Amino acid sequence: MLSTLLVLAATTGHAVEAVAAHGEAPSGITKITHDFGISVPLILAQVLSFSIVAFVLWKFAFKPVLATLDERQAKISSGLSYAEEMKTKLAAAQEESAASAKRAQVEASRIIDEARKSAKDFLDKQTQETAAKANDIIAKAQQAIELEKKKMLAEARTEIARLVVVTTERVLAKKLTDADRSAYNDAASRELTNA
Known about the structure:
Layout: H1 2-22, H2 29-36, H3 40-173, H4 178-194
């Protein structure tokens, strides 16, 4: 293609020069090119140069830039899809976290209720045990008091009997009549029986 353009430019240039050399009046395209001072070989050379530069730029500049842009576009779309996926996972994690917190709160409430019930049961049990111990202590104290009372009464009876005997001996040591002795003995017997 390049060689074809060069040949075309050369022939066009020679034709224009030949017409100008013979002094013939230019016609059509030749007249326009002559009036405007356009050199066809220069234009064709510029078109050829532009085509070569455009091809080189396309091959070594635009293609790599376009490939880099495509690669970046792919990375951006991948990043956006990853961000969307992470957003979905974050929402799911937040929902799971909220559900977990709610479960933990329910479990904590249950544990607190169980602890309160256990503490109440323990307090009731301790109260009952304390009441039972207090009643036991009172019962033992009453038994001890009753035993002490019986012991004191027995000691009092013994002491009264001893005093009666001593009194009786003193009275008997005196000279009493049989009637007095009998009255004293009866009174002492009644005293011992009543005591």
